[in-house]
# Entry
Amino acid sequence: MKENILGDSLGINDQRPVLVYDSACGFCTFWVHRWQHITEDQVVYKPSQEVASQYPQIAPEKFDSAIYLIYPDGTYDSGAKGVFKALATSVHKLPLLAYKKIPGFAPISEWTYRQVANNRAFFSFLTRCVWGTTVGRPTWHLARRFFIIILGLVYFIAFSSLGSQIEGLIGKEGILPVQSFLQQVESQMGVERVWKLPTLFWLEAGDRFLKFICLAGAAISLLVMAGIAPALGLFILWLFYLSLFNVGQQFLGFQWDTLLLETGFLAIFLAPLKWRPKLASEPPPSPWVLLLFKFLLFRVMFTSGWVKLASGDPTWKDLSALLYHYETQPLPTWIGWYVHQLPQGFQEYSVIAVFIIQLGMPFLVFGPGRIRYMAASVLMFFQLLILVTGNYCFFNILTIAFCILLFDDAQIRKCIPKKWQMTEIRSRIPKWKKWFVEGMGQGMVVISILLYIIPLFVSPVSYPSVFISTVNTIRPFHIVNRYGLFAVMTTSRPEIFIKGSNDGQEWKTYEFKWKPGKLSNPPTFVAPHQPRLDWQMWFAALSNYERNPWLIQFMTRLLQGSQPVLDLLASNPFPENPPKYIQAVVYDYWFTDTETKEKTGNWWQREYKEPYTPVLQLP
# Structure
């Protein structure tokens, strides 16, 4: 009986394998603590100093050079194979599969293991440098909590910003009325419209319902930020924003709109499946979903760098792009004006820095510990630079939220009040919840591979039928999208101005709220609010009115005196009655230099270019 008790305490008679390691080795101890969190209770870990004598089949001195995974029947594996077999008791089965199936992988693994074992002091130092000093597997409870709070804030900004202008943009008397748009879609698609254009506005498309969705979205965003039913709340927010996106036409076609939809959908499976989750009892986030968020951040950043190279744009090739960017971007800030004045050499080196950040740093988000922290810090700083020099709605805040998920709880605890610094989080997740979350996470990985990876290696003419059908089915929901900003740099800044007249002789100009107008008005901060009409005016100026029929509709609304549309503008030069005639004209704008600004007080200079549209009037 005594012998059996002793055997059980050492794990000898246990049906689980025992991993024996050298506890005098700091490198071994560090990794054993990590593996314990991965394998949970599937493997027993024992120091060789305590149990080596219980395994006479292994010479005691061998425990000093390798770990041994010993099975209940007395057989064992050591070295790399022993590590891989221990990890295979968890979800990490790929290393063992590669060890068994891929030619050359086993000898390379064992050779690498021996090199590490023979140089443990160096690799211990390297491990601390790369992974940090935190022992144990990292957790992401706090990181998830802060990410969801920031995502809730982004949703609140998005719904509030859109709600303040939605009647003028897509309301009944707006520029592109939803009701007319849906009627046209119904006539073209018939009964398939509900699936091909999923939106709640098939039920009701009046102005009240538009405003209700925005108001309800803002309210639910606050509940998500407060931690009330986060998973359910995030699903409703995604559904509401998808409904708006699919009827927003030109005014909701920005990359950060699709980014918010993809992020919001993934976040549903990141959030705890509880009505009022408490940090101490929340189940851990799915590692698959965390991986997908890293992949999403990678795609957003890397593709923004890659498209610059792939476009062949000469300004990116000769490093002159930032000589134009600050003054030609849609809505610059006054800080952007000052950065524009910096020397040419600084701007050229900044282009090199942009390529390093966008093409290099994204790969590091998949790295361990301090490598990942460094990538997150650089990317966050990069987003802050963009934020202070230009107005890009909620894009920068949302990208910073991704970076928060690159910091594990041990790092976040260093930056938050002590009352939030929980040293131990105990949670047990029901099996059905674990299967559901893990299954959805793995399903999203498969979908991402299908929709994003396959097109990189397969020609469109060779797309498999399953790929085509999957794309056509999923595309309307915007859960996987393509990104890439500023592929081609604009080198001039045309600005469209709308002028009205009652006699065709005296013309008065409609003033916009945020886009450049008066030369003495400084570029201002408007983000995270996005004045979507002002943004579309920037895009329209780069083309012609034939390609922007919405602009003609906008001018028609001004002739009709539509109050919701007039509310989108800073001033109405015809307060009594709308004008009889209206026309759009184009000016070229550019920043003044320091000397000119000191003399005139103007931030801008301009030159008349040409009419943009013919003179219009109502029939």
Remarks:
- Confidence is low (pLDDT under 50) at residues 1-12.
- The chain is about 55% helix and 10% strand.
